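[Meeting: bench + compute handoff]

Bench side (C.D.) handed over the final construct sequence. Compute side (W.E.) agreed to return the predicted structure before the next meeting so the bench team could plan truncations. Sequence as handed over:
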Amino acid sequence: MAVKDTTRWYAVRTVPGSQRMAKALEGMPAHRKDESVIERQLRNQGIDVYMPSFKIEVKHHRTNEIIERRLPLLVGYAFVHLPNLEFEKVRGVEGVMCMLAPSRNSGPIRFPETTIAKLMLAEFDACERHLHDQRVRTETAKFMKAEGLRGQLKKILPKGRARTVSMREWADRFIDNLNDGARPKVLGIIKELDSLYADEAVAEIAKVA
């Protein structure tokens, strides 16, 4: 026997600009950190809302800082779950233009749970790919930075390092024998190398503890 769909999802048309990200507020729960204005307005009224979205990374034109942005997948629309059919309550929320309906004289269109579930699953998969790509870029940048620092050490330290000895270990062996000009440079490079992997070391210790 097929399970009856008892969920009541409906679409709302949003006011232009209401899908932009809301200002971060202190003490806001983690799951509401990146919410849009329309999501915040609806949730503040106790209304369950789902706005399909995706994330992109853009580079700031002045600082070159990488900024992550969350954008709506369906521009101008969001979904609300209304088990008690509180249509008028939704219409009264700031940022809601209207409920999506096939005509002026008909009621709002109800969307099946399967449709919403597919959207949520697609968004989850996209989010996982985004996080994976983010991790790969971070690790690649860290590796390239470390290789550059090791290259600097190679130019300063004595020749003869065995393949089984890391450049970091090699620096420790000769640091006390370097002249006053080279020693501060090597110490600075060592500090940068250590800082690249300090966070990972702390994370591993936390796992064991």
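W.E. noted at the follow-up: The longest strand covers residues 53-59. C.D. will use this when planning the next construct.
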